[in-house]
Amino acid sequence: MRLVVLGGGESGVGTAILGKKKGYDVFVSDFGKIKETYKEVLSINGIQWEDEQHTEDLILNADVVMKSPGIPDKAPIIKKLVEKGISVISEIEFAIQFTNALTIGITGSNGKTTTTLLTYHLLKQGGLNVGLAGNIGKSFAWQVAEDKFDVYVLELSSFQLDGIINYKPHIAIITNLSPDHLDRYNYDYNQYIAAKFRITMNQDENDFLIVDGDDIEIQKWLQNNKIEANVIPFSLQDKNKEGGYVQENNIYNNVNNELFTMPINELALEGKHNVKNAMAATAVAQLMKIRKQTIRESLSNFQGAEHRLEKVLKIQDVQYINDSKATNVNSVFYALDSMTTPTVWIVGGVDKGNDYDELMPLVREKVKSIICLGVDNQKLMNTFQNVVDTIVETTSMVEAVKIAQKMAEKGDAVLLSPACASFDLFENYEDRGRQFKNAVRNL
């Protein structure tokens, strides 16, 4: 059997290693450049590879092709494979056939990384032999090849779900839906929503789907489509008979006729959206029979995701917060919503067709000044110049942080929450977040 892996990044190399171990004839092809560390791994494992090209003769003879999530379906090589009727699948679909582990799949437009890390933390603290993979950390396929976990918590993007056929998580979570990556879905929001709901397409009556009960699009989809899984909602507005809800500053989670309660102020994570993330992760822990006391302790001692509302330092009574992972408007909405002090907001980068209007009420209420950090800041300037007292432009992180320090007074916060991609001035959002933290530490 010939396995061709398109894309020589983390998921591609992991798939190649698993394929080789399972006796496939493996070839890795990347249209871009493969990192040196990955080239070494491939060579050590005797796996053939090429980069900066796709040699069709070596690809179109595949029995199965694993496509990395970053490659769009409209790429010429993918179109040719589909025309030839060759199966093109995602890493998750390839790897799942080689493990008996139970999986928990987590998707959504925002909050999926935090919910994934929190779920993993709850299960690990609860004593389960659990792995963490998907869109995060070490590749799932690589772990299936080398580790022996009983349970995996997988963060799944819509692109990874596009490439599944038989994959079925025992427990699935859809944190919420908001327009994102529409360039990959012909600018059709419904196609994007359908991609997210692929997470439940193979689930049966023994499986569970945990969803945001307040999300209009999720509720609409569930009303119009039949699913087999047991639905467990979580909500800030409704008191659910089954699932999670909030009452008098407490979380209540009723799952499997077991009621879990905890005061919101004891949660390690702040903000309404994190109350939802906590309810979703708690529902998983309850289904996996983790003790209530362990869940409570884990929710109160959890360290959040790096670059996601990460408190960096307090200098002269000003709190600096790194939310570099906020690459769309919806994420920034959550960030601003969780701010409790006047805020100097650092924003900007490569705009993905953002509509900033929904942020207006929060910006008026919470933001005292704005620092635009990008190559082209015109749209931000036009949108917000009459809303805040001061708005400045800069193209350097060090300068942005220095200006922020001058603008901020005792008791304020400085928030990096860009709403945009980072590729104009930085390698990626992690690089942007690290530069912010370094600049803050050097103040």
Describe the overall structure.
This protein is 35% helix and 23% strand. It is of the alpha/beta class and 443 residues long. It folds into 3 domains: 88 residues, Rossmann fold; 208 residues, 3-Layer(aba) Sandwich (UDP-N-acetylmuramoyl-L-alanine:D-glutamate ligase); 132 residues, Protein-Tyrosine Phosphatase, Chain A, CATH 3.90.190.20. It has a 6-stranded parallel beta sheet with strand order 7-8-6-9-10-11, with helices on one face. Strands 15-16-20-17-18-19 form a 6-stranded mixed beta sheet, sandwiched between helices. Helix 16 packs across helix 17. The N and C termini lie far apart (58 Å). The relative contact order is 0.09. The mean pLDDT is 93.
